[in-house]
Amino acid sequence: MEGNRGSLERIEVLRKITELTRSMIVELSNGSSKMIAIDRFKSYCTNSLENCCCRFNLSEGKDVLTLQRESHVRRLDVLLRVLLIIQQLLRENRHSSKRDMYYMHPSIFTDQSVVDRAINDICILLQCSRHNLNVVSVGNGLVMGWLRFSEAGRRFDCLKKPNSAQFIPVQVEEVTDIATAADYILVVEKESVFQRLANDRFCSRNRCIVITGRGYPDVPTRRFLRLLVDVLALPAFCLVDCDPYGFDILTTYRFGSMQMAYDAKNLRIPQLQWIGAFASDSEKYDLPEQCLIPLTSKDKRRTEALLQRCYLRREVPHWRLELDSMLQRGVKFEIEALSVHNISFLSDHYLPSKIESELTTGKLIGDYQSIHSTNMGLVWNGNGMS
């Protein structure tokens, strides 16, 4: 079934490529200098809520590429070269990384960002996601805990060793047979925190799934997390450093990135809840001054810019209050600063108390627990629940 669906998707994308190139040829034959119009998307603005028009999946305008401007001609040249590579990948049912594609014409592409932009343009023009083009990322994400799944015929059984890391699969569309007995999903910003939890055998003592994107998450990590949240309907929590970069990573998971705003519907995780680290935690957990780092001028500018994002005012105003509190205090700190009390303070006290507080309020757990069976929990076979 998965193979048939993948074949149909490839055929549909190839059909769209043919239609796109045919329309460009027609424009040329008619003597038109206008070639294509590419929708523009954004995941946020800095307007007041009264003036905010941001809506996921809605274009805010178009970039009209013509043959009259040199910059447009170059952008079209790159776009068509990348489109030709993608067409070949789809016809041969092969996959390629963005980096591989760059090295196919390095003297023409000149920089990786040029290829990245072309891929995004093609996704918008064809109204598809990047994985539909057989363009894959080099996976960075890690997962551990109460989880079992298959990917392209390979079995991943985290349940046997719940505190051992597994790489998150790159081809998330091939993931099937998901089974879990977890009560929640925990996303942590950094690999160092992930390893701290693994060393403390956090997943043996807590029925959960732990994921890290090892910094800013790549597309497979975000897609995999989105799949788990959608399929398993578990509450999902996120733990990041108390600094503007940690907060930006948090918003990337929940709201999506500006660069891939066109695909936000498939990448954002609106159920994700922020549990720390908060600026107020420095006092609540009595962190000494030596653990607190003054915000730099760059940190302050970045924080002020984050505070202006419309989705914070609209969807999570309490997040905005915590971010503003960090700015007013003028200090930041890393999650690892909690180790000042003892090396396992994060695993033994901080996280259990934070998560228990969220779950027992009833705001998040809701009907989640009622969907668990008494044995292995939910199983997703790629077509539905079983």
From TrEMBL:
<dbReference type="GO" id="GO:0042138">
    <property type="term" value="P:meiotic DNA double-strand break formation"/>
</dbReference>
<dbReference type="GO" id="GO:0003918">
    <property type="term" value="F:DNA topoisomerase type II (double strand cut, ATP-hydrolyzing) activity"/>
</dbReference>
<keyword id="KW-0539">Nucleus</keyword>
<keyword id="KW-0799">Topoisomerase</keyword>
<dbReference type="InterPro" id="IPR036078">
    <property type="entry name" value="Spo11/TopoVI_A_sf"/>
</dbReference>
<dbReference type="InterPro" id="IPR013048">
    <property type="entry name" value="Meiotic_Spo11"/>
</dbReference>
<comment type="similarity">
    <text>Belongs to the TOP6A family.</text>
</comment>
<dbReference type="InterPro" id="IPR036388">
    <property type="entry name" value="WH-like_DNA-bd_sf"/>
</dbReference>
<keyword id="KW-0460">Magnesium</keyword>
<dbReference type="GO" id="GO:0005524">
    <property type="term" value="F:ATP binding"/>
</dbReference>
<keyword id="KW-0238">DNA-binding</keyword>
<dbReference type="GO" id="GO:0000724">
    <property type="term" value="P:double-strand break repair via homologous recombination"/>
</dbReference>
<keyword id="KW-0479">Metal-binding</keyword>
<dbReference type="GO" id="GO:0000228">
    <property type="term" value="C:nuclear chromosome"/>
</dbReference>
<dbReference type="GO" id="GO:0007131">
    <property type="term" value="P:reciprocal meiotic recombination"/>
</dbReference>
<feature type="active site" description="O-(5'-phospho-DNA)-tyrosine intermediate">
    <location>
        <position position="103"/>
    </location>
</feature>
<feature type="domain" description="Spo11/DNA topoisomerase VI subunit A N-terminal">
    <location>
        <begin position="74"/>
        <end position="135"/>
    </location>
</feature>
<dbReference type="InterPro" id="IPR013049">
    <property type="entry name" value="Spo11/TopoVI_A_N"/>
</dbReference>
<dbReference type="Pfam" id="PF04406">
    <property type="entry name" value="TP6A_N"/>
</dbReference>
<dbReference type="GO" id="GO:0046872">
    <property type="term" value="F:metal ion binding"/>
</dbReference>
<feature type="domain" description="Topoisomerase 6 subunit A/Spo11 TOPRIM">
    <location>
        <begin position="184"/>
        <end position="355"/>
    </location>
</feature>
<dbReference type="GO" id="GO:0003677">
    <property type="term" value="F:DNA binding"/>
</dbReference>
<keyword id="KW-0413">Isomerase</keyword>
<dbReference type="InterPro" id="IPR002815">
    <property type="entry name" value="Spo11/TopoVI_A"/>
</dbReference>
<dbReference type="GO" id="GO:0000706">
    <property type="term" value="P:meiotic DNA double-strand break processing"/>
</dbReference>
<dbReference type="InterPro" id="IPR034136">
    <property type="entry name" value="TOPRIM_Topo6A/Spo11"/>
</dbReference>
<protein>
    <recommendedName>
        <fullName>DNA topoisomerase (ATP-hydrolyzing)</fullName>
        <ecNumber>5.6.2.2</ecNumber>
    </recommendedName>
</protein>
<dbReference type="Pfam" id="PF21180">
    <property type="entry name" value="TOP6A-Spo11_Toprim"/>
</dbReference>
